[in-house]
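Module 6 notes. Inverse folding takes a fixed backbone as the condition and produces residue identities as the prediction. Think of it as a translation problem where the source language is geometry and the target language is the twenty amino acids. Below is one complete input and output pair. Work through it position by position during the lab.
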């Protein structure tokens, strides 16, 4: 499931206009959103000039300020950049290499934390007698919700998130892409005998299967290789579904863009610093890239929070002398 829509608007200041990237939502004089062609023209103008004071304004009053969707930078990175493409492929390549090794040299334990385990003293569900499987989150892990996020960026900002998301779950799936490297990696896993299982917080199993198929990542069969939020009555907590999967399969690898895709223990209340410490614990740190594989998501999710004081350690702050 995605995070909440962008709700707050940041009004454009002159410095913003001169220093930011082209804005798909630059407002016209009437306060409305420009149509696609005007939007493209504005984007081109912004790109060429790097600084636009007023567009189509011949009077003394400034045009209504436009809003910047705070998700824009994350979208530029995740959906547009070569760097994010490379990170995604890096993760998938490492995952396939790791899984191949686990198939060649089976280990006694899965990579699913057992019930009652902690991040400080992790214990894992055993593998004896089980066939290998890999478990993946769906959204921004195996596929990118390009259509939904495009609408989030360019559509009206005052709309209700749940209804937009429900409509998205029911869509035909044409406006998604597999994450870079996902299709080949998932095919490789299946070819080496690893069952690919999707554990998503989407609500609709038919829509989930449809979008996975549309992205070229299927099959996904509800209750067998696809698990959705209502399956265990545990809300967004994926642990009960993971345990259900791990009863039947030896889960040799997991992939996700949120730490809750690995264990709900990451989602208990914590400050930004405490949360980071959880990922850094000695037993947990060893799992990243060795059973647990994280995909980048700077667009939404639990990673995106914190004031400057939350983010920067007190002993690592700096300003030029005299300022
Ligand atoms: Mg996700």
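Target side of the pair, the amino acids:
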């Amino acid at each position: 499931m995605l995070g909440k829509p962008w709700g707050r608007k940041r009004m454009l200041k002159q410095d913003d206009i001169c220093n930011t990237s082209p804005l798909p939502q630059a407002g016209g004089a009437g306060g409305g959103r420009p149509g696609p062609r005007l939007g493209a023209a504005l984007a081109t103008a912004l790109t060429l000039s790097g600084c636009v004071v007023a567009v189509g304004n011949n009077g003394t009053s400034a045009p209504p300020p436009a809003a910047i969707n705070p998700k824009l930078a994350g979208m530029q990175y995740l959906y547009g950049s070569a760097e994010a493409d490379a990170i995604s492929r890096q993760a998938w390549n490492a995952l396939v290499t790791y899984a191949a090794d686990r198939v060649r040299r089976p280990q006694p334990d899965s990579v699913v934390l057992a019930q009652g385990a902690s991040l400080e003293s992790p214990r894992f569900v055993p593998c004896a007698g089980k066939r290998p499987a890999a478990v993946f989150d769906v959204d921004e892990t195996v596929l990118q919700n390009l259509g939904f996020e495009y609408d989030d960026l360019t559509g009206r900002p005052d709309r209700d998130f749940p209804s937009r998301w429900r409509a998205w779950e029911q869509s035909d799936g044409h406006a998604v892409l597999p994450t870079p490297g996902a299709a080949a990696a998932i095919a490789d896993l299946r070819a080496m005998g690893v069952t690919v299982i999707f554990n998503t917080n989407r609500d609709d199993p038919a829509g989930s299967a449809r979008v996975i198929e549309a992205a070229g990542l299927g099959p996904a069969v509800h209750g067998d290789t696809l698990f959705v939020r209502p399956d265990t009555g545990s809300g967004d907590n994926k642990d009960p579904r993971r345990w259900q999967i791990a009863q039947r399969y030896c889960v040799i690898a997991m992939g996700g863009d949120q730490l809750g895709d690995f264990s709900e223990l990451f989602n208990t209340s914590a400050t930004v610093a405490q949360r980071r410490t959880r990922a850094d614990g000695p037993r947990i740190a060893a799992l990243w890239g060795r059973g647990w594989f994280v995909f980048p998501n700077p667009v939404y999710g639990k990673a995106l929070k914190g004031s400057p004081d939350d983010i920067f350690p007190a002993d690592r702050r700096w300003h030029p002398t005299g300022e």
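Reference fact for the lab report: The chain has two domains: 9-27+37-54, 75-294.
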